[in-house]
Specification:
Length: 399
Protein backbone atom coordinates (compact mmCIF):
# COMPACT_ATOMS: atom_id res chain seq x y z
CA UNK A 1 0.00 0.00 0.00
CA UNK A 2 1.19 3.51 -0.80
CA UNK A 3 2.42 5.31 2.28
CA UNK A 4 0.55 8.33 3.67
CA UNK A 5 1.22 10.47 6.67
CA UNK A 6 -1.50 9.96 9.26
CA UNK A 7 -2.26 11.65 12.59
CA UNK A 8 0.24 9.22 14.14
CA UNK A 9 3.01 11.14 12.35
CA UNK A 10 2.10 14.45 14.01
CA UNK A 11 4.29 15.76 16.81
CA UNK A 12 3.05 18.11 19.51
CA UNK A 13 0.11 20.10 18.09
CA UNK A 14 -0.68 22.22 21.15
CA UNK A 15 -1.70 25.68 19.96
CA UNK A 16 -1.17 24.71 16.29
CA UNK A 17 -3.90 25.43 13.74
CA UNK A 18 -5.19 22.33 11.91
CA UNK A 19 -7.00 22.94 8.61
CA UNK A 20 -9.17 19.83 8.34
CA UNK A 21 -11.09 19.04 5.15
CA UNK A 22 -14.25 17.13 6.06
CA UNK A 23 -17.51 16.27 4.29
CA UNK A 24 -20.39 18.34 5.67
CA UNK A 25 -22.47 18.19 2.49
CA UNK A 26 -25.43 16.95 4.52
CA UNK A 27 -28.93 16.11 3.29
CA UNK A 28 -31.44 18.70 4.58
CA UNK A 29 -35.20 18.97 4.69
CA UNK A 30 -37.07 22.05 5.91
CA UNK A 31 -33.84 23.49 7.32
CA UNK A 32 -33.04 20.35 9.35
CA UNK A 33 -30.32 17.74 8.73
CA UNK A 34 -31.88 14.37 7.86
CA UNK A 35 -28.72 12.21 8.05
CA UNK A 36 -25.65 12.90 10.21
CA UNK A 37 -23.50 9.99 8.93
CA UNK A 38 -20.89 12.29 7.40
CA UNK A 39 -20.53 14.31 10.61
CA UNK A 40 -20.07 11.13 12.64
CA UNK A 41 -17.38 9.97 10.20
CA UNK A 42 -15.34 13.13 10.93
CA UNK A 43 -15.67 12.97 14.74
CA UNK A 44 -12.60 10.78 15.52
CA UNK A 45 -10.24 13.15 13.67
CA UNK A 46 -11.76 16.34 15.08
CA UNK A 47 -11.83 15.03 18.66
CA UNK A 48 -8.29 13.62 18.50
CA UNK A 49 -6.81 16.91 17.23
CA UNK A 50 -8.85 19.04 19.65
CA UNK A 51 -7.99 16.82 22.63
CA UNK A 52 -4.30 17.16 21.75
CA UNK A 53 -4.65 20.95 21.99
CA UNK A 54 -4.87 21.98 18.33
CA UNK A 55 -7.20 24.72 17.11
CA UNK A 56 -9.33 22.86 14.57
CA UNK A 57 -10.67 24.75 11.52
CA UNK A 58 -13.09 22.65 9.46
CA UNK A 59 -13.20 23.17 5.69
CA UNK A 60 -16.11 21.77 3.69
CA UNK A 61 -18.43 22.41 0.76
CA UNK A 62 -22.23 22.39 0.82
CA UNK A 63 -24.22 22.03 -2.39
CA UNK A 64 -23.19 23.61 -5.70
CA UNK A 65 -23.22 27.40 -5.30
CA UNK A 66 -20.77 27.76 -8.24
CA UNK A 67 -18.55 30.45 -6.78
CA UNK A 68 -21.37 32.67 -5.47
CA UNK A 69 -22.57 33.32 -1.93
CA UNK A 70 -25.93 31.58 -1.64
CA UNK A 71 -27.53 32.02 1.79
CA UNK A 72 -29.36 28.66 1.67
CA UNK A 73 -26.01 26.92 1.12
CA UNK A 74 -24.11 28.52 3.97
CA UNK A 75 -22.40 26.07 6.29
CA UNK A 76 -23.84 28.07 9.19
CA UNK A 77 -26.89 25.84 8.64
CA UNK A 78 -25.06 22.70 9.81
CA UNK A 79 -23.28 24.17 12.86
CA UNK A 80 -26.01 23.07 15.31
CA UNK A 81 -25.89 19.50 13.97
CA UNK A 82 -22.08 19.34 14.21
CA UNK A 83 -22.24 20.69 17.80
CA UNK A 84 -24.83 18.06 18.70
CA UNK A 85 -22.80 15.15 17.26
CA UNK A 86 -19.46 16.43 18.61
CA UNK A 87 -20.88 17.26 22.01
CA UNK A 88 -18.92 20.49 22.12
CA UNK A 89 -19.31 24.11 21.06
CA UNK A 90 -18.36 25.05 17.50
CA UNK A 91 -17.63 28.57 16.24
CA UNK A 92 -18.81 29.60 12.75
CA UNK A 93 -16.50 31.78 10.62
CA UNK A 94 -18.09 33.39 7.51
CA UNK A 95 -14.83 33.33 5.49
CA UNK A 96 -12.20 30.72 4.52
CA UNK A 97 -9.12 32.98 4.32
CA UNK A 98 -7.85 36.42 5.29
CA UNK A 99 -8.12 38.61 8.41
CA UNK A 100 -11.55 37.35 9.55
CA UNK A 101 -10.16 33.82 9.84
CA UNK A 102 -6.96 35.14 11.47
CA UNK A 103 -9.10 36.97 14.04
CA UNK A 104 -11.12 33.79 14.73
CA UNK A 105 -7.88 31.85 15.29
CA UNK A 106 -6.90 34.49 17.84
CA UNK A 107 -10.20 34.07 19.69
CA UNK A 108 -10.15 30.25 19.68
CA UNK A 109 -8.54 28.51 22.62
CA UNK A 110 -6.44 25.37 22.30
CA UNK A 111 -8.77 22.44 21.62
CA UNK A 112 -11.54 24.63 20.17
CA UNK A 113 -13.31 23.89 16.89
CA UNK A 114 -14.60 26.23 14.16
CA UNK A 115 -16.38 25.66 10.84
CA UNK A 116 -15.32 27.96 8.00
CA UNK A 117 -17.80 29.04 5.33
CA UNK A 118 -18.73 26.89 2.30
CA UNK A 119 -15.50 26.63 0.29
CA UNK A 120 -17.48 26.62 -2.98
CA UNK A 121 -18.56 30.24 -2.40
CA UNK A 122 -15.11 31.04 -3.84
CA UNK A 123 -14.55 30.41 -7.57
CA UNK A 124 -10.93 29.42 -6.90
CA UNK A 125 -12.04 26.34 -4.93
CA UNK A 126 -13.28 24.24 -7.86
CA UNK A 127 -10.62 25.75 -10.14
CA UNK A 128 -7.97 24.52 -7.66
CA UNK A 129 -6.47 28.04 -7.68
CA UNK A 130 -3.03 27.87 -6.02
CA UNK A 131 -3.42 31.47 -4.81
CA UNK A 132 -6.61 30.56 -2.93
CA UNK A 133 -4.88 27.51 -1.45
CA UNK A 134 -2.01 29.76 -0.27
CA UNK A 135 -4.45 32.27 1.23
CA UNK A 136 -6.28 29.52 3.17
CA UNK A 137 -2.97 27.95 4.23
CA UNK A 138 -1.72 31.27 5.63
CA UNK A 139 -3.96 30.76 8.69
CA UNK A 140 -2.96 27.12 9.31
CA UNK A 141 0.05 25.13 10.47
CA UNK A 142 -0.84 21.79 8.89
CA UNK A 143 -3.52 20.23 6.68
CA UNK A 144 -5.57 17.08 7.30
CA UNK A 145 -7.78 15.56 4.62
CA UNK A 146 -10.58 13.47 6.12
CA UNK A 147 -12.99 13.67 3.17
CA UNK A 148 -12.48 10.62 0.95
CA UNK A 149 -15.90 11.35 -0.59
CA UNK A 150 -14.45 14.53 -2.16
CA UNK A 151 -11.05 12.99 -3.00
CA UNK A 152 -11.95 12.48 -6.68
CA UNK A 153 -12.05 16.28 -7.07
CA UNK A 154 -8.86 18.29 -7.55
CA UNK A 155 -10.05 21.39 -5.66
CA UNK A 156 -8.12 23.92 -3.59
CA UNK A 157 -9.21 22.36 -0.27
CA UNK A 158 -9.07 18.70 -1.39
CA UNK A 159 -5.79 18.76 -3.32
CA UNK A 160 -4.19 22.22 -3.47
CA UNK A 161 -3.61 22.64 0.29
CA UNK A 162 -1.59 19.40 0.41
CA UNK A 163 1.10 21.11 -1.69
CA UNK A 164 1.33 24.17 0.57
CA UNK A 165 1.24 22.70 4.09
CA UNK A 166 2.43 19.45 5.72
CA UNK A 167 -0.42 17.07 4.77
CA UNK A 168 -1.91 14.13 6.68
CA UNK A 169 -4.75 11.66 6.19
CA UNK A 170 -7.44 11.91 8.89
CA UNK A 171 -8.79 8.81 10.66
CA UNK A 172 -11.79 8.39 8.33
CA UNK A 173 -9.60 8.80 5.22
CA UNK A 174 -7.04 6.38 6.69
CA UNK A 175 -9.73 3.75 7.43
CA UNK A 176 -11.14 4.13 3.91
CA UNK A 177 -7.76 3.78 2.19
CA UNK A 178 -6.83 0.76 4.33
CA UNK A 179 -10.17 -0.94 3.53
CA UNK A 180 -9.92 -0.20 -0.19
CA UNK A 181 -6.38 -1.54 -0.29
CA UNK A 182 -7.63 -4.79 1.26
CA UNK A 183 -10.46 -4.96 -1.28
CA UNK A 184 -8.68 -4.31 -4.59
CA UNK A 185 -5.17 -3.01 -3.90
CA UNK A 186 -3.69 -6.11 -2.27
CA UNK A 187 -6.66 -8.43 -1.71
CA UNK A 188 -6.62 -12.00 -0.49
CA UNK A 189 -7.83 -14.05 -3.46
CA UNK A 190 -10.21 -15.29 -4.76
CA UNK A 191 -11.96 -11.90 -5.13
CA UNK A 192 -15.63 -11.44 -6.03
CA UNK A 193 -17.32 -8.22 -7.10
CA UNK A 194 -21.07 -7.61 -7.07
CA UNK A 195 -22.08 -4.82 -9.45
CA UNK A 196 -25.74 -3.92 -9.74
CA UNK A 197 -27.87 -0.92 -10.58
CA UNK A 198 -30.06 0.18 -13.41
CA UNK A 199 -27.73 0.91 -16.29
CA UNK A 200 -24.55 -0.49 -17.78
CA UNK A 201 -23.75 2.97 -19.16
CA UNK A 202 -23.21 4.39 -15.66
CA UNK A 203 -20.79 1.61 -14.69
CA UNK A 204 -18.98 0.85 -17.94
CA UNK A 205 -15.54 1.86 -16.64
CA UNK A 206 -16.14 -0.05 -13.40
CA UNK A 207 -16.99 -3.27 -15.26
CA UNK A 208 -14.08 -2.90 -17.70
CA UNK A 209 -11.62 -2.43 -14.84
CA UNK A 210 -13.05 -5.11 -12.54
CA UNK A 211 -12.81 -7.97 -15.05
CA UNK A 212 -9.03 -7.48 -14.96
CA UNK A 213 -8.94 -7.41 -11.13
CA UNK A 214 -11.38 -10.00 -9.77
CA UNK A 215 -11.97 -13.74 -10.08
CA UNK A 216 -15.78 -13.56 -10.03
CA UNK A 217 -17.94 -10.71 -11.36
CA UNK A 218 -21.59 -10.95 -10.31
CA UNK A 219 -23.80 -8.66 -12.42
CA UNK A 220 -27.33 -7.84 -11.23
CA UNK A 221 -29.93 -5.10 -11.47
CA UNK A 222 -31.15 -3.64 -14.74
CA UNK A 223 -27.65 -3.82 -16.18
CA UNK A 224 -27.77 -7.64 -16.16
CA UNK A 225 -30.60 -7.44 -18.72
CA UNK A 226 -28.28 -5.68 -21.19
CA UNK A 227 -25.79 -8.55 -20.88
CA UNK A 228 -28.55 -11.17 -21.24
CA UNK A 229 -29.91 -9.40 -24.33
CA UNK A 230 -26.38 -9.21 -25.80
CA UNK A 231 -26.29 -13.01 -25.44
CA UNK A 232 -29.45 -13.34 -27.55
CA UNK A 233 -31.95 -13.70 -24.70
CA UNK A 234 -35.31 -11.94 -25.12
CA UNK A 235 -35.78 -9.80 -22.00
CA UNK A 236 -39.30 -8.62 -22.88
CA UNK A 237 -40.18 -5.17 -21.49
CA UNK A 238 -37.24 -5.15 -19.06
CA UNK A 239 -35.06 -2.09 -18.59
CA UNK A 240 -32.29 -2.74 -21.12
CA UNK A 241 -29.72 -0.74 -23.09
CA UNK A 242 -29.84 -2.63 -26.38
CA UNK A 243 -27.44 -0.15 -28.00
CA UNK A 244 -24.70 -1.36 -25.62
CA UNK A 245 -24.83 -5.00 -26.74
CA UNK A 246 -21.42 -4.81 -28.46
CA UNK A 247 -19.89 -3.21 -25.34
CA UNK A 248 -21.37 -5.93 -23.12
CA UNK A 249 -19.90 -8.61 -25.43
CA UNK A 250 -16.50 -6.88 -25.32
CA UNK A 251 -16.57 -6.85 -21.49
CA UNK A 252 -17.43 -10.59 -21.48
CA UNK A 253 -14.58 -11.31 -23.93
CA UNK A 254 -12.11 -9.36 -21.78
CA UNK A 255 -13.30 -11.24 -18.70
CA UNK A 256 -12.70 -14.51 -20.51
CA UNK A 257 -9.15 -13.47 -21.44
CA UNK A 258 -8.43 -12.34 -17.86
CA UNK A 259 -9.74 -15.58 -16.32
CA UNK A 260 -12.65 -13.78 -14.61
CA UNK A 261 -15.93 -15.72 -14.36
CA UNK A 262 -18.96 -13.50 -15.03
CA UNK A 263 -22.17 -14.58 -13.28
CA UNK A 264 -25.46 -13.50 -14.88
CA UNK A 265 -28.86 -14.54 -13.51
CA UNK A 266 -30.27 -17.72 -15.07
CA UNK A 267 -33.57 -17.62 -13.21
CA UNK A 268 -35.36 -14.34 -12.61
CA UNK A 269 -38.38 -12.75 -10.98
CA UNK A 270 -40.69 -11.17 -13.56
CA UNK A 271 -43.91 -9.19 -13.61
CA UNK A 272 -46.11 -7.42 -16.16
CA UNK A 273 -46.12 -4.29 -13.99
CA UNK A 274 -43.63 -2.65 -11.69
CA UNK A 275 -45.57 -2.40 -8.41
CA UNK A 276 -45.38 -3.89 -4.93
CA UNK A 277 -46.46 -7.57 -4.87
CA UNK A 278 -48.17 -7.49 -8.31
CA UNK A 279 -50.62 -10.30 -9.23
CA UNK A 280 -48.58 -11.14 -12.36
CA UNK A 281 -45.46 -11.93 -10.30
CA UNK A 282 -43.66 -15.17 -11.18
CA UNK A 283 -40.22 -16.78 -11.20
CA UNK A 284 -38.86 -18.33 -14.39
CA UNK A 285 -35.78 -19.26 -16.38
CA UNK A 286 -34.31 -16.31 -18.34
CA UNK A 287 -35.29 -18.06 -21.59
CA UNK A 288 -38.98 -18.00 -20.56
CA UNK A 289 -39.51 -14.24 -20.11
CA UNK A 290 -42.64 -13.25 -22.03
CA UNK A 291 -42.75 -10.24 -24.37
CA UNK A 292 -45.01 -8.28 -21.96
CA UNK A 293 -42.96 -9.08 -18.81
CA UNK A 294 -40.07 -7.28 -17.16
CA UNK A 295 -37.23 -8.73 -15.10
CA UNK A 296 -37.20 -7.09 -11.65
CA UNK A 297 -34.98 -9.35 -9.52
CA UNK A 298 -32.68 -12.36 -9.56
CA UNK A 299 -34.42 -15.68 -8.88
CA UNK A 300 -34.00 -17.83 -5.76
CA UNK A 301 -31.93 -20.64 -7.35
CA UNK A 302 -29.51 -18.16 -8.95
CA UNK A 303 -29.06 -16.39 -5.59
CA UNK A 304 -28.32 -19.72 -3.94
CA UNK A 305 -25.66 -20.42 -6.57
CA UNK A 306 -24.18 -16.92 -6.03
CA UNK A 307 -24.06 -17.58 -2.28
CA UNK A 308 -22.02 -20.70 -3.05
CA UNK A 309 -19.62 -18.57 -5.12
CA UNK A 310 -19.12 -16.17 -2.20
CA UNK A 311 -18.33 -19.14 0.08
CA UNK A 312 -15.31 -19.89 -2.13
CA UNK A 313 -14.03 -16.30 -2.03
CA UNK A 314 -11.93 -14.43 0.52
CA UNK A 315 -12.63 -10.84 -0.59
CA UNK A 316 -15.80 -9.09 -1.80
CA UNK A 317 -16.39 -5.64 -3.30
CA UNK A 318 -20.07 -4.64 -3.63
CA UNK A 319 -21.65 -1.74 -5.53
CA UNK A 320 -25.32 -1.63 -6.44
CA UNK A 321 -28.42 -3.78 -5.71
CA UNK A 322 -29.34 -6.99 -7.58
CA UNK A 323 -32.98 -6.02 -8.14
CA UNK A 324 -35.45 -3.15 -7.71
CA UNK A 325 -34.90 -3.48 -3.95
CA UNK A 326 -36.95 -0.42 -2.90
CA UNK A 327 -40.13 -2.26 -3.90
CA UNK A 328 -41.08 -5.58 -2.28
CA UNK A 329 -40.70 -8.41 -3.15
CA UNK A 330 -37.95 -7.35 -5.58
CA UNK A 331 -35.58 -6.90 -2.64
CA UNK A 332 -35.28 -10.63 -1.95
CA UNK A 333 -32.12 -11.38 -3.96
CA UNK A 334 -30.20 -8.38 -2.61
CA UNK A 335 -31.26 -9.17 0.98
CA UNK A 336 -30.39 -12.88 0.69
CA UNK A 337 -26.95 -12.36 -0.86
CA UNK A 338 -26.12 -9.46 1.49
CA UNK A 339 -26.97 -11.65 4.49
CA UNK A 340 -24.75 -14.44 3.15
CA UNK A 341 -21.87 -11.96 2.74
CA UNK A 342 -22.50 -10.62 6.26
CA UNK A 343 -22.48 -14.14 7.76
CA UNK A 344 -19.23 -15.06 5.96
CA UNK A 345 -17.66 -11.81 7.18
CA UNK A 346 -18.82 -12.48 10.75
CA UNK A 347 -17.20 -15.91 10.76
CA UNK A 348 -13.95 -14.41 9.44
CA UNK A 349 -13.76 -16.08 6.03
CA UNK A 350 -14.55 -12.97 3.94
CA UNK A 351 -13.33 -9.36 3.81
CA UNK A 352 -16.33 -7.39 2.51
CA UNK A 353 -16.19 -3.78 1.31
CA UNK A 354 -19.22 -1.97 -0.09
CA UNK A 355 -19.93 1.56 -1.27
CA UNK A 356 -22.30 3.88 -3.12
CA UNK A 357 -25.58 5.44 -1.96
CA UNK A 358 -28.00 2.75 -3.21
CA UNK A 359 -25.70 0.04 -1.91
CA UNK A 360 -25.58 1.44 1.63
CA UNK A 361 -29.38 1.78 1.63
CA UNK A 362 -29.80 -1.79 0.32
CA UNK A 363 -27.41 -3.29 2.89
CA UNK A 364 -29.10 -1.36 5.71
CA UNK A 365 -32.45 -2.62 4.44
CA UNK A 366 -31.07 -6.19 4.58
CA UNK A 367 -29.82 -5.60 8.13
CA UNK A 368 -26.38 -6.64 6.87
CA UNK A 369 -24.42 -3.37 6.82
CA UNK A 370 -23.05 -3.58 10.36
CA UNK A 371 -21.41 -6.97 9.63
CA UNK A 372 -19.58 -5.87 6.48
CA UNK A 373 -15.86 -5.22 7.00
CA UNK A 374 -16.19 -1.67 5.66
CA UNK A 375 -18.96 0.44 4.19
CA UNK A 376 -17.92 3.51 2.23
CA UNK A 377 -20.36 6.41 2.24
CA UNK A 378 -18.55 7.99 -0.72
CA UNK A 379 -20.43 7.96 -4.02
CA UNK A 380 -18.38 9.34 -6.93
CA UNK A 381 -15.03 8.75 -5.25
CA UNK A 382 -15.87 5.10 -4.53
CA UNK A 383 -16.95 4.54 -8.14
CA UNK A 384 -13.82 6.20 -9.54
CA UNK A 385 -11.72 4.03 -7.24
CA UNK A 386 -13.57 0.96 -8.59
CA UNK A 387 -12.76 2.21 -12.08
CA UNK A 388 -9.06 2.11 -11.18
CA UNK A 389 -8.70 5.87 -11.51
CA UNK A 390 -6.22 7.91 -9.51
CA UNK A 391 -7.97 10.17 -6.98
CA UNK A 392 -6.28 13.60 -6.82
CA UNK A 393 -7.10 14.16 -3.13
CA UNK A 394 -5.49 10.81 -2.23
CA UNK A 395 -2.53 11.17 -4.58
CA UNK A 396 -1.66 14.53 -2.96
CA UNK A 397 -1.26 12.84 0.45
CA UNK A 398 1.27 10.28 -0.72
CA UNK A 399 4.75 10.52 0.77
Amino acid sequence: MTRFRTLDDLGDVTGKVALVRVDLNLPMQDGAVTDDTRVRAAVPTIVELADKGAKVLLLAHFGRPKGERVSTQSLSMVVAEVQKVLGREVMFVPEIAGPVVAQAVGILGNGDVAILENTRFWKGEEANDPELAKAIAANGDFYVNDAFSAAHRAHATTEGLAHVLPAYAGRSMEAELTALDKALGNPVKPVAAVVGGAKVSSKLDVLKHLVTQVDHLIIGGGMANTFLAAGGIDVGKSLCEHDLAATAEEILDNADKAGCTVHLPYDVVVSKEFAANPPSLRECNVHEVAADEMILDVGASAVEALADVLKTCRTLVWNGPLGAFETEPFDKATVALARTAAALTREGSLVSVAGGGDTVAALNHAGAASDFTYISTAGGAFLEWMEGKELPGVKALEI
